Structures are given as C-alpha cells and as structure tokens.
Amino acid sequence: MGTRAEWVSELVEMTGTVRGEPELSCWILERLADQVPFDSAIFLPLPHRPAPPIALHRDKKYMQLYAHLLRDYARITEGQQKGQLAAAVTGVYRDTEVFSATERRELPLFAEIIRPQGITSQLVAHVKFRGERCGIMYLSRHGRTRRFSAAHEQALAHLMPAIALSQATLRAYGKKPEQPAPLTPREKQIAFYIERGFRNHDIAAILGTSARTVRNQVSRLFEKVNVTNRAELVARLSRPT
Asked: Cα(first)–Cα(last) distance of the chain, in Å?
C-alpha cells in the first residue's frame, strides 16, 4: 500500500494519459482498494444518468439490479435525502451512520438494490468540483463483520479533492474541440492573403473590392473561426484537422 501522496501523484499522471473518463474511473476504483479496502465498488458518472456505471467485482446480477433502479428511479431512491444532506457536509458518508436499521431494512434502495447484493456497509462519496457533481462512488463491503469505520471514511474524504479535480480536468480537456463551419470560397481567399501578410487595402485591390468591404469580411471571418486577430487566425488555420 503506497502513501496518500504517492496515490495522488499516480492519479495526476494517469489523468494525463488515459483515453477517457471510463478508463480513469476504473483506475480510481481499482487503486482505491489500496487506501480503503472494499469488496465491490461502483462509479456512477454524472450528470449523464443513465450512463453505464463502472463496476468492480460484480457479476451480471448487479447490472440487472441497476436496470431495475433506472426503470423506477424516483420510487427506489425515495428517502435518500438524508444521504444527500450528509454528502453536502464532507462529500463522504457511511450509510450505517446516516440511515437507521429500520431505514436500511425498509427503504426501496436498500431492500431492492443493496441487500440483494449482500452488501452490509457502504461508503458513499459525491465527486464534486466547484459545487458541481461529476459522479458518485459507492464502495461496498459484504458480511456482517466487515463494516467501514470512521478511519476509512476520513481516508476517502482526504482523497476526494484530487479525484474530483482529475475528473473535472479530463472533462474539460479530454473532449475534441468543436470544429468551425467550413469557410466559403471568398473567406478562403481572404484567409489565404492574410496568411501571407497582406493588409486589407492590398486584399481589396487584388479582389477588386473596397477596403471597407474586406474589413467587414475579415471581422466576420474572425468571428466564425473564434479568434480576435490575424496572428490567431493564422495559428488556427495552420493546425492539422
């Protein structure tokens, strides 16, 4: 088991090399077991519900239960406000400390989803960055004598800021940038001359129009390509597509 600092360092490195959110989420769950031992784990990405969850150590029964949850989401999640309030304080809570024994026996989420998996204790962590939830992690233990402790809760809480930052970073920079609309033939002409250092009056003389018309066309071209000056335009158009 590495130190917390080593774990965070590896997380930062992985964030820069993974192919996308599912791969990063899977890595996080796999390596969290080194810091907070668990029997099974789920990472549910948000706000993309019902996106497929990342699950560790689960058989097909979990996916059947998950599908059942989505079919009747409002009813099954009824009574979970206490958990949301607990997560709002530290981001992490133990279900055995938030919900009473009666609630864990009778609430639909416990009766129809959690208990059928043999889960007796869960650590629930809301992955939040700048107040926005990126996902929810459920770390689970199975068996009456294997419950999470306050130390486990604290250990996970210490890692949550780094986990949230990694998820937010990947969402912000892992997406393919939007491509601008194709340039018209006249816009391509103007861009061609701008790339070669011609000024508006030069372009106007070549194209047989006025400098004012070219100025307006250049302004629209900047707006279309989302740049503010000629240098940015040249740099943008020189990028490989």
From this structure: 44
Q: How far apart are CA 209 and CA 127, in angstroms?
A: 57
Contact 46, 131 (CB under 8 A): no
Residues 54 and 22: beta-carbon distance below 8 Å: yes
Count up the domains in the chain and report the number. Answer: 2
Q: What pLDDT score does 148 carry?
A: 94
**pTM (two decimals):** 0.67
Domain that holds residue 207: 185-238
Residue 190 is part of a domain; what is its CATH number? Answer: 1.10.10.10
Residue at 200 is within a domain: yes
**What 3-state class would DSSP assign to 129?**
strand
Tokens 């508006």 correspond to what residue? 200
Residue 225: CA count within 13 A, CB half-sphere: 25
